[in-house]
Every structure is written in structure tokens, then in C-alpha cells.
Specification:
With 428 residues, this protein is α/β, with parallel strands linked by helices. It has a single domain, classed as FAD/NAD(P)-binding domain (3-Layer(bba) Sandwich). Helix content is 34%, strand content 29%. The strands form four sheets. Strands 7-6-15-16-17-14-18-21 form an eight-stranded mixed sheet. The protein starts with 10 loop residues before the first strand and ends in a 17-residue tail after the last helix.
Length: 428
């Protein structure tokens, strides 16, 4: 990984990216590959990024997000480590009524004869994407990672950005982008207010191996404590489809108790929710728990500052759209900056950043609202509500046009897509 030693000479960049993880790293690559000089600061020792204990989560990557990762070269590195989602099955507890999406249904209405259907998306472990970043960053011209390091002092003025790192380095840039996650110091320092509420839930995450293949079907069961998702992962050579990622939503008063269980008792609790449709299961690797909240910044721009991904918004994992919305931010901001550079504008001007905010604000607000409504609708066991939602899912299952609409949303192909999400070059 490229790092820079302590020096008295300021490092000059077009863009300073604070946070070089999945969203920040993708943005850094996209900009550097299109002629911007990029300095990226990350507090982690990137040598440990690929350890399973660092981040045991897996992410759902929509079709449009896959195109973003392809556009910057990440997909070429991780393609063999991704599992396509060919079917999505949603059910409400043990109800016989369910909703089933088959990727071939959408293809039959939109593709020419003989054309192969695209999956809804892909499941990939976060450490695979981090591994791709550690491989690509050192090979990318115009991109310097300062890691492990932190910003000790940040000054934004009408003329530019000045940052002093804890390691002593100084960086001058035209624009700073915060990709630091939900607890963004840069957002807080800018005085941007945050609207936030706690779902009183946590997401318990682990990986399991199972006897029978999942056939690349993503399953989501709605239980009284919240959604329980079984998401397909690639397996081993001899069992290529016998591994899944579990995202188990549990109440605030129960999840600490569950996390403290020994392996046998944890497995027993897991089996009660998982069922036996894939045969015997075995938990492999560590388990993690993440408190679940909804939050959004009142604005995603300030003087020479843009917020991206979790620094701008954080949502419940019920729809699996967290990283996808972050990558939409990345693709939109990169396009706005490339367009501004192409017309000779200062990329840090407020008028340029306002183009980014106008593009992303409504889309993010809609997704936050939808996920919040789904959490409130499905995280309860009130009989009249349960009956209404079961009948609603059954009705959608019988309406092909409505199903196709929801399927296109799952693929991330609805709305005003940035060029990278359409599979096009970032430069017009």
C-alpha cells in the first residue's frame, strides 16, 4: 500500500478523501483513473484489512453497483469470489404466503431471444473488496494512501483545503470528501446536523456452511424481532454453493445475551430461525453484532466539502441497500467532478457541489423512508398487520408488472443513473 513519509513539503492534491474503505476507496480509484490527483487518508493499518476478524460482513451488490466496481477495476479482482443472486424469496415467519422473484422473469420481458439473464445482484464478502483495493491502489497513478494515519487538523476556506495529519504530513487540496462512516468527525467539525433514531435492534452477522446447496437464492424471513436473511456466498471447490451469510436482526435486550452464548447454544438459537431446508448447518468464523440505527445528514455539502455513503446517510439492512446507495453517491460525485473539470470549473465551488446534492438528496431520502417503513411494518407480530402484509406479498406475487417493477429496483436500474452505473465511461 502506498504511504508517504513525514516531510516538511505539503502534498498537493485535487481531492482529499478521508476514509479509504469500500466507498472511499472506490471513489479514490475512480477519480485517480480519470486524471485527478487524489490523497486518501485512512486510520486503519491496511495490511489487516483482509483478516476475517476485521470485518466479517458480506454485502449485496446490485447490478448497477457491479458496473461501478467493474469501471474502476475492482470487479476483475473479486469476480470469482462473488455469488450471483438468481432468486429472492421473502416470507413472513412461517406463513405459507410468500413473495418470489426469479431473475428469468424480468429477462423474459426485456431481453431478446437467446440473451442471457442478468442476476439481481451478487453477494461478496467485504474482505474480498478490501483485498481488491490493496491490490489496485499501489498500481494507480495519481493516488496516494496515507495509512494508518488520521487528520489532526482540517481547514476549509474559499481558496482551498489544508489538512495536517497525525503523522506530520500536510495536504493541500481543492476539495475534501468525507467517507469515514456513520461517526464522521469531518461532518461534525463542519457543523452539519444529524437526524438519527435507534431501532433498538442489532444485526448479528455470521457465516455458515450447510449440507445442501442454496442454488444462489437469497432468503429473507420476517420475524417479530426483525428480518432474518440467509444470503448466498460462494463455497468451496467440492461444495460451491454450500455457504451463506446470515444477517439476524435481534432486539436490543436479547442480542447481547445471544452473542455471549457458547458455540453449541448459539448454533441451537440460530437453527430455530434458520430451519432445516439446507440440512445441517455449521457456523464458520467469528460472529459480529452491529447496533442498527437510521441517520441522515441535514445537508451533504458544505464549503469545499462533500459527504459520501455512511457519512451522509445510514439505513437499516432490511433491504440490503446500504453499500449500493453509497456507491450511487460515489458514481454521482465522480461524474459531477469530471464534468466540472471538463468545463474548467473549480471542483470545490459550491455551485459544483450543489449539483451533487441535488442529484443524490431525493434518491437517498426515498430509500431511507422505504427502509424505515419496512422495518416498522415487519418488526412486529400484531395479527391484523401480519395478515395485511401477508396478503400484500401474495398479491404482488401474482402481478407480473408490479413484480418486475420491484425487481428492477432490486437490480438498482431505476432512476437517473450516473454513467458508471450504466456501464459507461466516466468521461462523456
Amino acid at each position: 500500500m502506498t504511504t508517504t513519509p513525514r516531510t516538511s513539503t505539503a502534498h498537493k492534491a485535487d481531492v482529499l478523501v478521508i476514509g479509504g474503505g469500500l466507498a472511499g476507496g472506490t471513489l479514490s480509484l475512480a477519480l485517480a483513473q480519470n486524471g485527478f490527483v487524489v490523497a486518501t487518508v485512512d486510520r486503519e493499518d491496511l495490511a489487516g484489512w483482509t483478516d476475517q476478524g476485521f470485518d466479517g460482513r458480506a454485502s449485496a451488490i446490485s447490478l448497477s453497483s457491479r458496473r461501478v466496481l467493474q469501471g474502476v477495476g475492482i470487479w476483475d479482482v473479486i469476480a470469482e469470489e462473488t455469488a450471483p443472486m438468481l432468486d429472492i424469496r421473502v416470507c413472513d415467519g412461517h406463513s405459507p404466503l410468500f413473495l418470489h422473484y426469479d431473475h428469468k422473469e424480468l429477462a423474459s420481458a426485456t431481453l431478446a431471444e437467446g440473451q442471457e439473464a442478468e442476476p439481481f445482484g451478487y453477494m461478496v464478502e467485504n474482505r474480498s473488496m478490501r483485498k481488491a483495493l490493496t491490490a489496485l491502489v499501489p498500481k494507480t497513478e495519481n493516488l496516494t494512501y496515507f495509512a494508518p494515519n488520521e487528520v489532526a487538523q482540517l481547514e476549509r476556506s474559499k481558496d482551498g483545503v489544508r489538512a495536517v495529519l497525525k503523522g506530520g504530513q500536510e495536504i493541500h487540496a481543492d476539495l475534501v470528501v468525507a467517507c469515514e462512516g456513520r461517526n464522521s468527525p469531518t461532518r461534525d467539525q463542519a457543523g452539519i446536523k444529524l437526524t438519527q433514531w435507534d431501532y433498538k435492534q442489532a444485526g448479528i452477522v455470521c457465516t455458515v456452511e450447510h449440507e445442501r446447496p442454496h442454488n444462489f437464492c437469497a432468503q429473507e424471513h420476517f420475524l417479530p424481532s426483525g428480518p432474518f436473511a440467509i444470503l448466498p456466498l460462494v463455497g468451496t471447490t467440492d461444495k460451491p454453493a454450500c455457504r451463506s451469510s446470515i444477517v439476524w436482526t435481534e432486539r436490543a435486550d436479547l442480542w447481547p445475551i445471544i452473542m455471549e452464548l457458547d458455540d453449541d447454544d448459539f448454533k441451537e438459537e440460530l437453527e430455530l430461525r434458520f430451519g432445516d431446508f439446507l440440512g445441517d448447518i455449521e457456523v464458520v468464523g467469528p460472529r459480529f453484532a452491529y447496533p442498527l440505527t437510521l441517520q441522515y445528514a441535514d445537508t451533504i455539502i458544505a464549503q469545499r466539502l462533500a459527504l459520501v455513503a455512511d457519512s451522509a446517510h445510514g439505513m437499516h439492512p432490511i433491504a440490503g441497500q446500504g453499500l449500493n446507495m453509497g456507491l450511487r453517491d460515489v458514481a454521482a460525485l465522480a461524474e459531477v467532478l469530471v464534468n466540472a473539470r471538463g468545463t474548467g470549473l473549480d471542483i470545490g465551488e459550491m455551485s459544483v457541489l450543489q449539483n451533487y446534492e441535488r442529484w443524490r438528496r431525493f434518491d437517498n431520502a426515498v430509500m431511507l423512508g422505504v427502509t424505515d417503513a419496512l422495518v416498522k411494518l415487519f418488526s412486529n407480530d400484531i395479527e391484523p398487520v401480519k395478515l395485511a402484509r401477508d396478503l400484500g406479498m401474495a398479491a404482488v406475487n401474482q402481478l407480473p408488472d408490479v413484480k418486475r417493477f420491484f425487481m428492477r429496483h432490486a437490480m438498482g436500474t431505476v432512476g437517473e443513473l450516473p454513467r458508471l452505473m450504466r456501464g459507461e465511461s466516466l468521461r462523456p
